[in-house]
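Subject: for your reference before the review

Hello V.,

The reviewers asked for a structural picture of the protein, and I figured it would be easier to keep everything in one thread rather than splitting it across files. Below is the amino acid sequence we used in the manuscript, unchanged from the supplementary table.
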Amino acid sequence: MNTYELTVITRPEDDQYKAGLEIIKAEIDKEKGKIVKQDDWGVKDLAYEIKKQQKGHYTFYNVTLEPESLAKLDERLRIKTELLKYLFVKA
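And here is what came back from the structure prediction:
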């Protein structure tokens, strides 16, 4: 298993933010990954408009996953409307 850092920007509304957290947890669990650490960075102004949003709620994760699972997870997260942007980086 490899360790990855995942930064997620969700829509700033509370219900959308909570739905985004649940989606991330569920999708990582599907791939038999583990969330080692979760850090809430709060709502911040975006540098540029994303999906007609000026603000986003940032959340940072440390995640352990199999390398093969990363591509599958990326495909499924791409279509989630609650998530504005996300980025995986190998730690």
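For the response letter, the relevant points are probably these. The chain has a mean pLDDT of 92. Residues 14-30 form the longest helix (17 residues).

Happy to draft the paragraph if you're swamped.

O.
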